[in-house]
Amino acid sequence: MEKERKNTYPLEAEFDVAETEDEVTAASHKELIEMLPERQKEVLLLVFYHNLTLEKSAEIMETSIGSVRKHYDRGKRNLKELILKKTLHENNK
Questions:
Q1: Dihedral of CA 69/55/59/82: which sign?
Q2: Segment (H or E) for 69
Q3: Residue 63 φ/ψ region, left for φ over 0, alpha for ψ in the -120 to 50 degree band, beta for the rest
Q4: Which of these ranges, 10-19, 23-32, 43-52, has the smallest mean pLDDT?
Q5: Start and end of every RNA polymerase sigma factor 70 region 4 type domain (predicted)?
Q6: At 38, is the pLDDT very low, low, confident or very high (cuts 50, 70, 90)?
Q7: Residue 40: which residues within 8 A CB-CB, separation 6 or more?
Q8: Domains of the chain by range and CATH?
Q9: Residue 28's pLDDT is what?
């Protein structure tokens, strides 16, 4: 009696690794975003993780587009500094 062989399909290993690395990076960045001042954190989460425009973010935050741009720009700058510090710290281990 012969066993039935199920169809198998090769996994795309490179895709799986890249996806995992992206997920780890996104989780790491989200942790760093949590360290930002409240308004900067709020606008970056709306833009980066909810894919909203600055205009829509301003509407949700019930503030002016100018204020949202200010917090967005400062948040990106501060996040970049946090990422660089974390990277330097990890490389010096």
A1: negative
A2: helix 65-91
A3: beta
A4: 10-19
A5: 31-79
A6: very high
A7: 71, 72, 74, 75, 78
A8: 38-93 (1.10.10.10)
A9: 81
Structure tokens at 89: 């710290």
What is the 3-state secondary structure of 5-57?
Answer: CCCCCCCCHHHHHHHHHHHHHHHHHHHHHCCCCHHHHHHHHHHHHCCCCHHHH
> What local confidence, expressed as pLDDT, does residue 6 receive?
58
The average pLDDT across 41-61 equals: 96
* Close Cβ partners of 31 (under 8 Å, ≥ 6 residues apart): none
Rounded to an integer, what distance in angstroms lies between the CA atom of residue 31 and that of residue 36?
A: 10
Q: What is the pTM of this model?
A: 0.71
